[in-house]
């Protein structure tokens, strides 16, 4: 039998072996603890409650009711655009009806204050794909995007991993409610320059994750002024736009552009998805809306790598073109999220814990800095570990969101039942009581 | 103007090629039996429209699958929330069993080694990202699917170096062609990371022989590189020698414990075999845990809709259905293939003898005014504009010999195919009448090979972007 000599082999790519996928961060370690010991009201009442997952489970009944009444949305029947046509449809323009539906839905969410042209909607399999795709288009490897902190941990992977693009943080802190200032933008830009890194754009999430707050109109105007003066791009990830607690407080960058007659709009691109507002992360529905023709054309071509299943496009086209349904959904969803938010804020306040004043999203930004031994990231992680192992709550530490102020945590409230949320609040209350008792006894 | 990235500004998306130009013409003037009988018939699209009735009847008998129900109970919430990049277990299990079924159950697959992606387009690109660094190369036998130029190179910045195949031996892959390609890459200072083959081949429509597969495995073993086998057409093999999967070859005693097993990766999809390109169902299969792990994480950028995963998990778990589908679909592809071959033969047009695929590799060298790619373009334009058939010219597939065309036969009704055949026949008759040449004359092509090779290289570097490395 021939002895095989182990010849040198080529192995995998640098991208494959790097850890820029970010899965070694505490953000994911918490998930692991939850997976190993998940809370269940009946089977495992002392398990870890998952408060690190920004999912929207409060409005499924509305979707289920719609599906019950409209079976034609999921079975192909004898329509003109039946099963065959749907199954064959792989055009990267996406179903025209679906694009129209997305454009209309986005308009409704913004109370009609901005108009969207279906021909500028590019489809992608989720916002994850949309953000990566835009990064490929707007920046070269080694270039940078400026992102205000704290930001969604997934960006480290989504924007950097395969693209080779860097993130330079725009530092925001609690001294002014984490608002983005022109000074902070300028400082980040200069920092990049000093490292010889070319800045290609600013990426904001509005409403913000993890802050759970909308960005003020004046701030948006300042950001637009900044990107225009530097001749760079602006990506506005508006994935939580339908999750604002009131209809009026959210100002989309689209509205600001419309107010200035779309001057300098070719540098602006909006990302949207149905994963949060409609609670459909499994369906992989994302879009890029760009005011730049070349970006639209290029994004469309690139979307070949990440198209939305035509079966799913068909379903959502039906649903979202039904304006009675969408108007009711948007309104009811907002009310329920507001109620949940109020519940958690009150519950935390009763425990002596304050949060950043929020008005949107599926989470609140909780301030536990008074509980830190020292105002350091290490102390924060120690506190996070006790929340995870002692209190049995998986919440996201601010450091995983690149927050410069230690002690802040993102706590999700929409991915569980009210009862479970109550259990979580009770556990926090008890935890805080124990700490007070320990302090007084010392 | 706001500057975009180099990737956005180059034309590695490949959409300027003739492959896409023909589509554009078709879109301006598409054939319709009733509304536009003079329009262009689309023969450039490798779609499988032959077996939809089988799918439709299954759907009618199993309404729960598309209605988010399992055993009558709604699982809507569960599916709506399911975004785990490991994929729906029931779907992966059903898919690997389907893949085994297509291979006559001569091989079996472990669903833990399967990664789901939004189509084979995504699978191929993802494998490039996992296996090659920017500026490195993969060797591909020519002619190959034009989409690879975009899928494998665009965002990954990987290079393709051709393994030249010619009609002298039925376009089979030879050892010398492999070595020559590897040498070419060295000359261009490109590090070769692997070979990518499509089996059965697009555009040739032939399944790779055991000899070719063994050659490939020894070649990659010797060079220490990867092999990707895109088996997207594996369910369309309708004639002997039947489909031999690369996995079957690896079961050979020489390779059972060899590290080469971990460097062979399969790409699959339901776009061709099941005719569901719109549903974006692709997969990567690999024995290498790191590749599976890395590709799984990357699949976040292109997951399959859970709605679709569920529908297909139900459908593919129905073994009675899949067994019948696979055999019936094969029969229909075989019949259509025979129809086109016959029709072309009557027009004095030979085809490469093939046993698979949704297209024929058609030899129109004898209709060229000269043995050049210019003449091929001339002929192609006539066929698109005068004859009214959008077929794919061999040059768009990087074929080194001018005069070959890919003609699809499974994306239309029988009547339309007959019409297409009639149009070709009339066209050929009109040429022979005007030229007084027997349409059966064929020319030898050896001398044009060198010229066409350098033309190919020129075309390749023209599409290359300037890199700063």
Automatic annotation (TrEMBL), chain A:
This is 1-aminocyclopropane-1-carboxylate synthase 7. One of its GO terms (molecular function) is 1-aminocyclopropane-1-carboxylate synthase activity. Signal peptide: none annotated. Keywords: Pyridoxal phosphate. Belongs to the class-I pyridoxal-phosphate-dependent aminotransferase family. The keyword Membrane does not apply. PANTHER family: AMINOTRANSFERASE CLASS I_CLASSII DOMAIN-CONTAINING PROTEIN (PTHR43795:SF39), BIFUNCTIONAL ASPARTATE AMINOTRANSFERASE AND GLUTAMATE/ASPARTATE-PREPHENATE AMINOTRANSFERASE-RELATED (PTHR43795). The lineage of its organism: Eukaryota, Viridiplantae, Streptophyta, Embryophyta, Tracheophyta. The keyword Transmembrane does not apply. It comes from Forsythia ovata. Residues 49-428 form the Aminotransferase class I/classII large domain. It holds the Pfam family Aminotran_1_2.
TrEMBL record, chain B:
GO terms for biological process: ethylene biosynthetic process; fruit ripening. This is 1-aminocyclopropane-1-carboxylate synthase. Its EC number is 4.4.1.14. Coiled coil: none annotated. Its cofactor is pyridoxal 5'-phosphate. Keywords: Ethylene biosynthesis, Fruit ripening, Lyase, Pyridoxal phosphate, S-adenosyl-L-methionine. Pathway: Alkene biosynthesis; ethylene biosynthesis via S-adenosyl-L-methionine; ethylene from S-adenosyl-L-methionine: step 1/2. It catalyses: S-adenosyl-L-methionine = 1-aminocyclopropane-1-carboxylate + S-methyl-5'-thioadenosine + H(+). Belongs to the class-I pyridoxal-phosphate-dependent aminotransferase family. Residues 41-424 form the Aminotransferase class I/classII large domain.
């Amino acid at each position: 039998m021939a002895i095989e000599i182990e010849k040198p082999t080529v192995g995998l790519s640098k991208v494959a072996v790097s850890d820029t996928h970010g899965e070694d961060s505490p953000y994911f370690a918490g998930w692991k603890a939850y997976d190993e010991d998940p809370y269940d009201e009946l089977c495992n009442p002392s398990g870890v409650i998952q408060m690190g997952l920004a999912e929207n489970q409060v409005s499924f009944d509305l979707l289920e009711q719609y599906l019950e009444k409209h079976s034609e949305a999921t079975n192909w029947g004898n329509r003109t655009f039946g099963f065959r046509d749907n199954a064959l449809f792989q055009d990267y323009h996406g179903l025209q009806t679906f694009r129209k539906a997305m454009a209309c839905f986005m308009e409704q969410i913004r109370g009609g204050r901005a108009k969207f042209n279906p021909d500028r909607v590019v489809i992608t399999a989720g916002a994850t794909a949309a953000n990566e795709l835009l990064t490929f288009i707007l920046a070269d490897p080694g270039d940078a995007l400026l992102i205000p902190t704290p930001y969604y941990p997934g960006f480290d992977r989504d924007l950097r991993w395969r693209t080779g693009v860097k993130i330079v943080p725009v530092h925001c802190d609690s001294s002014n409610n984490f608002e983005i200032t022109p000074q902070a933008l300028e400082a980040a830009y200069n920092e990049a320059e000093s490292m010889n890194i070319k800045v290609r754009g600013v990426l904001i999430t509005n409403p913000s994750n993890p802050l759970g707050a909308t960005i003020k109109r004046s701030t948006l105007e300042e950001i637009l002024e900044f990107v225009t003066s530097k001749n760079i791009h602006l990506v506005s990830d508006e994935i939580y736009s339908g999750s604002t607690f009131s209809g009026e407080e959210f100002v989309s960058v689209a509205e600001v552009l419309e107010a200035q007659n779309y001057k300098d709009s070719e540098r602006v691109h909006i990302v949207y998805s149905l994963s949060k507002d409609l609670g459909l992360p499994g369906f992989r529905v994302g879009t890029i809306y760009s005011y730049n023709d070349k970006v639209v054309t290029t994004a469309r071509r690139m979307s070949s790598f990440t198209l939305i299943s035509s079966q799913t496009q068909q379903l959502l086209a039906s649903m979202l073109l039904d304006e009675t349904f969408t108007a009711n959904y948007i309104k009811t969803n907002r009310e329920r999220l507001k109620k949940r938010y109020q519940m958690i804020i009150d519950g935390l306040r009763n425990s002596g814990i304050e949060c950043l004043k929020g008005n949107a999203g599926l989470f609140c930004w909780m301030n536990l800095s008074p509980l830190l031994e020292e105002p350091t990231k290490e102390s924060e992680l120690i506190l996070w570990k006790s929340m995870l192992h002692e209190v049995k709550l998986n919440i996201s530490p601010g450091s995983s969101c690149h927050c410069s102020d230690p002690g802040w945590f993102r706590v999700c409230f929409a991915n569980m039942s009210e009862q479970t949320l109550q259990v979580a609040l009770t556990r926090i209350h008890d935890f805080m009581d124990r700490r007070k008792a320990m302090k007084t006894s010392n | 103007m706001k500057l975009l990235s180099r990737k956005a500004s180059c034309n590695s998306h490949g959409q300027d090629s003739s492959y896409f130009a023909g589509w554009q013409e078709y879109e301006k003037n598409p054939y319709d039996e009733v509304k536009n009988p003079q329009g262009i018939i689309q023969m450039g699209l490798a779609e499988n429209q032959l077996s939809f009735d089988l799918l439709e009847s299954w759907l009618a008998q199993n309404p729960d699958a598309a209605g988010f129900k399992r055993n009558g109970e709604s699982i809507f919430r569960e599916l709506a929330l399911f975004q785990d990049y490991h994929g729906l277990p029931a779907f992966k299990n059903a898919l690997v069993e389907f893949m085994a079924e297509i291979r006559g159950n001569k091989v079996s697959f472990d669903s833990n080694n399967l990664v789901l992606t939004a189509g084979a387009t995504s699978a191929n690109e993802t494998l490039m990202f996992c296996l090659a660094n920017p500026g490195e190369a993969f060797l591909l036998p020519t002619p190959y699917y034009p989409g690879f130029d975009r899928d494998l190179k665009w965002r990954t910045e990987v290079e393709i170096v051709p393994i030249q195949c010619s009609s002298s031996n039925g376009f089979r892959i030879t050892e010398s062609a492999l070595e020559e390609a590897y040498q070419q890459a060295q000359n261009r200072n490109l590090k070769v990371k692997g070979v990518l083959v499509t089996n059965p081949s697009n555009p040739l429509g032939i399944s790779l022989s055991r000899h070719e597969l063994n050659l490939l495995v020894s070649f990659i073993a010797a060079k220490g590189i990867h092999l990707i086998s895109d088996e997207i057409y594996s369910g369309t093999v309708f004639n002997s020698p039947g489909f031999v999967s690369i996995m079957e070859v690896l079961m050979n005693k020489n390779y059972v414990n060899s590290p080469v097993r971990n460097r062979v990766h399969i790409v699959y999809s339901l776009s061709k075999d099941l005719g569901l390109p719109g549903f974006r169902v692709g997969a990567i299969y690999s024995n290498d845990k790191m590749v599976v792990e890395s590709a799984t994480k990357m699949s976040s950028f292109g997951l399959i809709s859970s709605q679709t995963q569920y529908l297909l998990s139900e459908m593919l778990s129905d073994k009675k259905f899949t067994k019948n589908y696979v055999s019936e679909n094969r029969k229909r592809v075989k019949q259509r293939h025979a129809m086109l071959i016959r029709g072309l033969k009557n027009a004095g047009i030979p085809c490469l003898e093939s046993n698979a695929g949704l297209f024929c590799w058609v030899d129109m060298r004898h209709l060229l005014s000269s043995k050049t790619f210019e003449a091929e373009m001339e002929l192609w334009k006539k066929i698109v504009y005068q004859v009214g058939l959008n077929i794919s010219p061999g040059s768009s597939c990087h074929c080194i010999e001018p005069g070959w065309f890919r003609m699809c036969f499974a994306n239309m009704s029988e009547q339309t195919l007959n019409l297409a055949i009639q149009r070709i026949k009339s066209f050929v008759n009109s040429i022979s009448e005007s030229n007084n040449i027997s349409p059966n004359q064929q020319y030898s092509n050896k001398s044009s090979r060198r010229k066409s090779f350098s033309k190919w290289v020129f075309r390749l570097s023209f599409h290359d972007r300037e890199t700063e490395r």
